[in-house]
Design a protein that fits this description.
The chain is mainly alpha-helical. The chain is 60% helix and 0% strand. InterPro entries: DUF2891 (IPR021365).
Length: 371
């Protein structure tokens, strides 16, 4: 009996850190304010991979044998976290958390990691790589959108070091924006996938950057593109979602983008036609969270990200409606269900999800898209 009790107490002791993390994440889901304990956990996910070069999945067009080089030499600022776009938004995660929690325990390590990446030499090499004429489609639009979102976060931070980093990043910001401006007028169709190529989600990030940067030309271009791609859309087939590898919802992402573009009354009318499935009663049962079957599989783990992005998109859609709109309660109930399902899975136990899900968790819990 004593041996059994000792074993039981040992198991409880070993489980307590995980229980504590899950409890803190649950508190973060119940309220809408990111707490410092959860922020610390998310920051550690980024810090652990920001300069971890391998494993690495590169999207690299080679012109000759001379292009056979390791990631740290190809893109010396953004070579960690498994792939380029995850490295970019991992930096965004740290910048945002430093803005929100400047005196947190992770602050010194986060500043050191960012300073190591944001050197003029590193960014010049990134510009050289991205600017190659044979790489016009590199990380378009997802990675480019995250570059602009990173720049927006730095621009919004009143901090001497952030201003220095903003200046260092400026050439890459300029190039990313230029690539988007060149692409949109010749993009004849919207891209409605649930993965990186999707246009609606990236348009939302780019729109938010343009508002911070004061780029009226980009805002106008996105508004025109939204009219071409989305203004007349009706009856989005939400019941067909998700596909097996989605981390973004094509229907919800479009609705979340259009609430940025349209005035509230116009948006309410458009949403009625676009997503007539949204109920007018307080219910979360109209949209079930996605099911994750294997978190060690890089593609199947996408569904955790889908639940996180659905949560913030549902909140965003509700934010675009007037408070008395009868759909708001159902949207927020479904958002809470997805949030409560997804956040406890953001642990970093498996690198397949740990290298990127922290960003989605921070974007959701810090209400990045609606601030």
């Amino acid at each position: 009996m004593r041996r059994w009790l000792a074993t039981y107490l040992l198991c409880v002791a070993l489980a307590l850190p995980g229980i504590a993390i899950a409890t803190q994440l649950a508190r973060t889901t119940a309220g809408e304010t990111l707490q410092e304990a959860a922020a610390t956990r998310f920051a550690q996910l980024a810090l652990s991979c920001l300069h971890q070069e391998y494993p690495n999945k590169i999207s690299h067009v080679m012109q000759s044998d001379a292009d056979v080089r390791p990631p740290r030499l190809l893109t010396p600022a953004f070579y960690g976290c498994y792939d380029w776009h995850s490295a970019v938004h991992g930096h965004w995660l740290l910048v945002r958390l430093l803005r929100l929690f400047p005196n947190a325990s992770f602050a010194a390590d986060a500043r050191a990691a960012l300073a190591a990446s944001f050197t003029p030499e590193n960014i010049a090499r990134e510009v050289e790589y991205l600017g190659h004429p044979k790489r016009a489609s590199f990380e378009r639009p997802y990675g480019l959108a995250w570059v602009l979102q990173l720049s927006a976060e730095l621009r919004s931070w009143n901090d001497p070091q952030a201003r220095q980093w903003t200046g260092a990043l400026a050439p890459l910001e300029t190039l990313a924006a230029s690539r988007i401006r060149t692409w949109l007028p010749v993009l004849h169709y919207a891209i409605r996938t649930g993965e990186h190529d999707q246009t609606a989600f990236s348009f939302g990030l780019i729109w938010d950057w343009a508002r911070v940067a004061g780029d009226a030309e980009m805002t106008s271009l996105l508004r025109t593109t939204a009219g071409r791609f989305y203004r007349d859309n009706r009856n989005c087939p939400l019941a067909y979602e998700p596909a097996g590898q989605d981390f973004l919802s094509p229907c919800l992402a479009e609705a979340d983008f259009m609430r940025r573009v349209l005035a509230p009354d116009d948006y309410a009318k458009w949403l009625t036609e676009f997503l007539p499935q949204i109920p007018t009663k307080h219910s979360a049962q109209w949209l079930d969270p996605g099911v994750v079957t294997d978190r060690t599989d890089p593609k199947l783990a996408h569904i955790d990200g889908l639940n996180l992005s659905r949560a913030w998109m549902l909140e965003g859609i509700a934010h675009g409606l007037k408070p008395k709109d009868k759909r708001v309660a159902a949207l927020r109930s479904a958002a809470a269900l997805h949030r409560d399902t997804a956040l406890p899975a953001v642990t970093g136990e498996h690198y397949e999800g740990g290298h990127w899900l922290g960003t989605f968790a921070v974007y959701l819990t810090s209400r990045a898209g609606v601030q």
